[in-house]
Amino acid sequence: MPTPHLFGIETEYGITREGMPDLDPVVESMELVRAYLTQPFEQSWDYSGEDPHEDQRGFRVSSLQQDREEDQFAELDSHRPFSFREMKSDLVLTNGARFYNDHTHPEYSTPECRSLVDLVAHDRAGERIIFRAAQKRNQALQSYPVKLYKNNTDFHGHSYGCHDNYLMSRDTPFEDLASGLIPFLVTRQVFAGAGKVGVEAQERDYVSGVFQMSQRADFMETQCSVDTMHDRPILNTRDEPHANREKYRRLHLILGDANMCEYATALKVGTTRVVLEMIERGICPSVDLADPVSAIKAVSLDLTLTAVLPCTSGTDLSALDIQRRYVDAAAKALIGTDAETDWVLTEWQDVLDQLAGDRSALVGSVDWVTKQWLLETFMESEHLEWSDPWLASLDLEYHNIDPNAGLFLSLEAAGNTRRLCEDSEIESAIHAGPSDTRGGIRGLCVSRFRDRIHSVQWERVLFKDGLIKPKTLEMGDLFDPDQVGVLREVLEQASSPSAVWDK
HEC states along 249-261? Predict the structure, then answer.
């Protein structure tokens, strides 16, 4: 049986309070998450399903570099009057999403989605949920308002992530996954990059005077690793399937930028999903980059898209050459599979052609092209050079999620961006999850039986009151949309959790 097409996005947001000295981002992130609540916080997220030490290559690591950082965090946090769970402030929302404090950043994880339109709507719903939490927080503050950015760098050597996740078959050998996927990931930034003023790296000085495609490329340090905060890998190998471990793996990609353009989000995830399908079928093109880590940085800095990347075969290729190899192979094998795959293949080919020619049509669709156009327009009017510090500030404001301040959102309000979903669909996604995935089931449980829930994680909900003994709703293999529909109907009609099992 083919693996169901399911995907999701986790986004860590940059947070600050304007003009505030001695900002404590841990407390600020915690308070922001809690500001979204309409009732007292309850600790219901179950962390037992999370184990970052399991590696998809078939072994378990005894320690991670991030373990030492977590120990340092614990020592620094010891003075705070909060427990670990209180600081995390994990919320499971009625749309099936998870909203919590990832130590120094508020993080929003979409529910699992089956369609790209649903995913875009839920990603945009996250922006609005977090902004509304900030509005509530600011109403309670006397000064130094909270500001939030959907980006990946603070321009001081610190990076925070936007992670795209995919359900995969456990049968696919990891070696096939790595060899087929890494060249694609190195080069997908040509349409998925968010754009960035300057160059930096982990805890190294920021260098101005440059514009590049990607915000995360500077921070990629190795090809494959289970670590996520140090020695960041192009291909993360953490093995937390959040599903039936015998059948599935979850591909957890940490190299991507946080996109403001809906089109870029859809194309980033849609093309990756298509490549994964080719890998599972054994029809992925062969590209043998000599040094993927150097290549990902070189691609980001090559706005001409003409530089060639060394390959061990001796046939050097540009980023566009590599992307065309993938889309040509996909078009031969997958055209006509379904309407969404056909859309991805068509748009993938079109965007590569536009990148190689007149890119003006991509303003409002591809973030790095849009940001470059905005900044160059401003530079021309103000007679500035790329080294002017003003540009880093404008770069940041491109990602501001306040509709009254964000540069991208101003473009969107003026009708100058390409939309994939309606505002009504985004508003609906704020309150309810996808109707055809377990994410929607999770959200429905929270919506209908919040006070009966003992604990929640991605693949199960444990109910308490009203039952003779606690019962667990297992969803580790709930991926068939028909089965999801049946369970949804039962939950919608049930008067209590116990009635679910009665049926």
Answer: EEEEECCCCCCCC
Q: What is the pLDDT of residues 446-501, one digit of tens each?
A: 999 999 999 999 999 999 866 556 789 999 999 999 999 999 999 999 998 888 87
The DSSP code for 176 is H
Eight-class DSSP state of 454? E
- According to DSSP H, which parts of 317-458 are helical? 319-334, 339-356, 367-382, 390-398, 407-413, 423-431, 438-449
Q: What is the DSSP string of 407-422?
A: HHHHHHHTT-S--SS-
Comparing CA positions, the residue from 228, 328, 330, 264 lying closest to residue 124 is 264
Instruction: Answer whether 0.90 is exceeded by the pTM.
Output: yes
Q: Are 191 and 148 in contact (CB under 8 A)?
A: no
Taking alpha carbons only, the member of 500, 440, 409, 491 closest to residue 127 is 409
Q: Is residue 77 situated within a structural domain?
A: yes
Phi, psi for 136 (deg, rounded to 5): -65, -40
Please list the residues that pair with 462 across neighbouring strands: 455, 472
Q: Which amino acid does the sequence have at 327?
A: V
Q: Are 180 and 65 within one domain?
A: yes
Residues 6 or more apart from 139 whose CB is under 8 A from it?
none
Q: Which of 388, 406, 425 is the last residue in one of the domains?
A: 425
Whether 1 is covered by a domain: the verdict is: no
pLDDT digits (tens, 9 = 90+) for 251-287: 999 999 999 999 999 999 999 999 999 999 999 999 9
- Among the candidates 425, 448, 477, a domain finishes at 425
Domain count for the chain, please give it.
2
Can you tell me whether residue 146 is helix, strand or coil?
strand
| Residues annotated as catalytic (active site), given as ranges | 102
Least Cα distance to 231 among 221, 243, 217, 246 occurs for 221
What does each C-alpha distance from 451 to 52, 337, 433, 496 come to in angstroms?
Answer: 30, 43, 19, 11
Please check whether residue 2 lies inside any domain of the structure: no
Please state, in angstroms and as integers, the Cα–Cα distance from residue 271 to each residue in 29, 148, 192, 364, following that order. Answer: 33, 29, 10, 19
Residue 319 maps to which CATH number? 3.30.590
Angle at 59 between CA 57 and CA 62, to 5 degrees: 130
Cβ-based neighbours of 65, under 8 Å, separated by 6 or more: 227, 229, 230, 231
Q: Are 377 and 463 members of one domain?
A: no
> Does 440 reside within a domain?
yes
Distance of alpha carbon 114 from alpha carbon 94, whole angstroms: 18
Same domain assignment for residues 361 and 466: no
119 and 149 inside one domain: yes
Please give the residue range of the domain that contains residue 348. Answer: 7-425
